Fold this protein.
Amino acid sequence: MNKDVEFIVENVKAHTEWFRNCLPMIASENLISPVAREMLISDFCDRYAEGHPGKRYYQGCIYVDKVELKCVELAKKLFKCSYADVRPISGTVANIGVFKALAKPGDTVTALNTAEGAHISHAKFGGAGVRGLNVVNYPFDSKNMNIDLDGAVKVIKEIKPRIALFGQSVYLFPTPLKEIADVAHDAGSSVVYDGAHVLGLIAGGKFQDPLREGADVVTASTHKTLPGPQGGIVLSDHKGDTEDDKKFLKRLDSGVFPGVVSNHHLHHMAAKAVAFAEHLEYGKEYADQIIRNAKALGQAMYELGFNVFCEHLGFTESHQIVVGVGDGMGRWAAEALEKADIIVNMNMIPGDTKPLNPSGLRIGVQELTRIGMKEKDMKDVAGLFKKVVIEKIKPENVASEVIELRKDFNKIHYCFKEDEAHKYYSITGL
């Protein structure tokens, strides 16, 4: 084998083996199912299909069209909506496509500040800036780790943004969307909800229902609490039954293609379809267990002496908890935990000004839930955090305990059974 290829293969294998023995707790990651993984290595990964089913710019899309139509059908059913575009190749691409559809360069969008939980694509230095949009931030309620309702209403009334944007990357509690959406619409704003982190919770009926709470559009990635392949989606319940609605949906469509997507990574699209079908069957149970686990981890870490945010609100209503670890100590804590095979990310918390030297950790439980952990296991996980961060035991010594804990948790749950998945394995010919 070529030495460079050998190097790449060896490192991918090493990574895979490492994560098989880790506690992966990055809030933006998850595991796809065996059937979905099979889609990623099918012949779809080699093909192109610009445009819509039946209206392609390429030939050879007979079966691609069938899969894409099924993917859209499943998305509409899962999210109870009338419009779904499954072509965005990431959540950020979905956001930029919607920005292109609904605003012009120089227009204003209102959103939270990234230091207070917003995603970088909401910022001037991210996707909003790519489209030349002016960003005005909502006030933030740091005690309750949520948008300041009265302050947001005031900003929208004064600014009258083209887009009132909601949703976060640090996302503990539902946005008070019902209370804000009417105000935004009265101000002439389109209401866009970025549900990237909580998409699986929304689909499972366990967080909030933005399309019924006033959002004109929901954008999201498809690989966090919704355990699909890395990709994006745009959803709306505008039905196109008026001329204005038809124009609105046409703008959304063209914002994605040709706006920000050429070929839309057909293997990912096929894997999305599988993930949607699985979530229709298992999503409610999975979402419920995610939130139970997050609350249990928050409680267990709080009882062990950690500064877990929002104890007065039950810590969280999502897959995440936020933990303060001391002024500027977030990087140290995340790196020490990594040496113990506990994978989390440092994160800014209210009051921080240095993204690379923050004071907090953002911790997600969706992947631990996916491999079968329940509330009682969160106490064990919390104990391992304490040994590394509070007791400062040598991380390499704690790693052996992590490996021991993982021995009983190496099967993917909340998906079509592995024996059923084998029926599909022959399609690659591998």
Q: What stands out?
A: The chain has a mean pLDDT of 95. Residues 34-276 form a domain with the Aspartate Aminotransferase; domain 2 fold (CATH 3.40.640.10).
